[in-house]
Design brief:
Layout lengths: L3 H13 L3 H10 L4 E2 H8 L3 H12 L4 E6 L2 E6 L2 H26 L2
Antiparallel strand pairs: 1-3, 2-3
Length: 106
């Protein structure tokens, strides 16, 4: 078993992924670096909602920020976050197909 601190840190990350708005932000960031206004337009969330979500996601290093003058640009922290999202989306795609098969009686 991993150390208790590692288990707790992982639980925090999965907790952050429990909010659909934050997940939409992370999926948008799969395309690359974006500012708050672009994230808001892409996700349909308010700019203040995006800013709040990004503040939560920065703490455990899920996203990083780069400042250019007065603008702040956000991106996924590293390849591990990208992999976690990619695997999650793949899993959802498979379970969604399984759900359809179960409903159709196949």
């Amino acid at each position: 078993m991993p150390a208790e601190a590692e288990v707790a840190d992982l639980a925090v990350i999965f907790g952050l992924l429990s909010d659909p708005g934050r997940v939409r932000i992370l999926i948008a960031l799969l395309e690359g670096e974006m500012c708050v206004c672009d994230l808001a337009a892409t996700t349909g969330l308010s700019e203040s909602g995006v800013s709040h979500a990004l503040r939560l996601l920065r703490g455990p290093r899920v996203v990083t920020v780069r400042r250019a003058g007065r603008m702040a640009y956000y991106s996924l922290a590293d390849a591990h976050v990208r992999m976690l999202l990619d695997l999650g989306l793949t899993h959802v795609g498979h379970t969604g197909q399984d759900r359809l098969k179960m409903v159709a009686g196949r």
